[in-house]
Amino acid sequence: MSCSLNQFYRAIGVRKQSLHQRLDRELGQQSYQHQLLFLIHQLRADHPTMGARDMYYLLQPPHIGRDKFEAFCKDHGFCSKRTINYSRTTNSTGVTRFPNLTIDIQLNRINQLWVSDITYFEINNTFFYLTFIMDAFSRRILGHHVSKRLFTTQTTLPAIRMAIKARKSMDLTGTIFHSDGGGQYYEKEFLTLTQKKKMVNSMCEYPWENGKAERINGIIKNNYLKYRNINNYVELQKEVDRSVELYNHHKPHIGLKRLSPVKFENLYLYKKDDSTNKLVTKNIDV
């Protein structure tokens, strides 16, 4: 005997809207925990012997208490000497996964591959979060954002909007957007934007499979921010903006013939002329 969905909802004693709201809450919690796990991995990489309780007080994660945080760390192998099983973070129970499209990729143009990651920055025992989006070919940071929380609206969404604006009217069809498996990279608002631009989402299974993005985190934090006198959130925002500007316009790269990312894009990117079959300089308006 068949019945409509509305009849089904009535039969189990819940309203359709209530059920969808509960599912949204559960998926939101899963994505939050997924990103939290990546941040714990970064913190433990910097402090190999730090215990779960110390990590809790440093990260001060919202929406999760101390005991639950410690249990979360224990469940994922951060409280024991056994090898960490990161495969637990990629379960399919409501978590969106995209294949890793960067394996053996040969980079030969801008907008071929964008990479992104979220990292933390500590000021007076308070953690803030830095999101970067970089063109893997030119090494240019296209988008960035500083936030107090890990919500998509405060991390990946403003960063990708800045990146798209930086590319102005360029066609981003087929651009691979590669990230870790954090929830901010597969929540609805973010995917709506990448799909609108016809970009292709890609994800690594393990944090170390996003090396280009992790390197840019380290460069901005260790080559720039650690040498600045930063005492609060507003100062951090200003120094991140300044650091990205210096990195993009002034920092030479061996792989870019000792040019900065912006100079490399302006002077050394070439476009094939279909009529002459020759390569001509393509100037990027920055």
Q: Write down the secondary-structure element order.
A: HHHHEEEHEHEHHHEE
First-to-last CA distance:
64 Å
Estimate the strand proportion: 15-25%
CATH class of the largest domain: Alpha Beta
Number of strands: 7
The CATH architecture of the largest domain comes to: 2-Layer Sandwich
How many separate structural domains? 2
* CATH fold type of the largest domain: Nucleotidyltransferase, domain 5
Radius of gyration: 21 Å
Short description:
The protein has 286 residues and is α/β, with parallel strands linked by helices. The chain is built from 9 helices and 7 strands; from the N terminus they run H-H-H-H-E-E-E-H-E-H-E-H-H-H-E-E.
List the helices and strands and how they pair.
Blueprint: H1 5-11, H2 16-46, H3 52-59, H4 66-75, E1 113-123, E2 126-135, E3 141-147, H5 156-166, E4 176-179, H6 188-196, E5 200-203, H7 211-223, H8 233-250, H9 261-268, E6 270-273, E7 278-281
Parallel strand pairs: 1-4, 4-5
Antiparallel strand pairs: 1-2, 2-3, 6-7
Structure description:
This protein has 9 helices and 7 strands. Residues 81-93 and 272-286 have low confidence and may be disordered. It has 286 residues and is α/β, with parallel strands linked by helices. Helix 6 links the parallel strand 4 (176-179) and strand 5. Helix 3 packs across helix 4. The chain has helices at residues 5-11, 16-46, 52-59, 66-75, 156-166, 188-196, 211-223, 233-250, 261-268, and strands at 113-123, 126-135, 141-147, 176-179, 200-203, 270-273, 278-281. The chain has 2 domains: 5-85, no CATH class; 113-272, Ribonuclease H-like superfamily/Ribonuclease H (Nucleotidyltransferase, domain 5, 2-Layer Sandwich), CATH 3.30.420. 29% of the residues are buried.
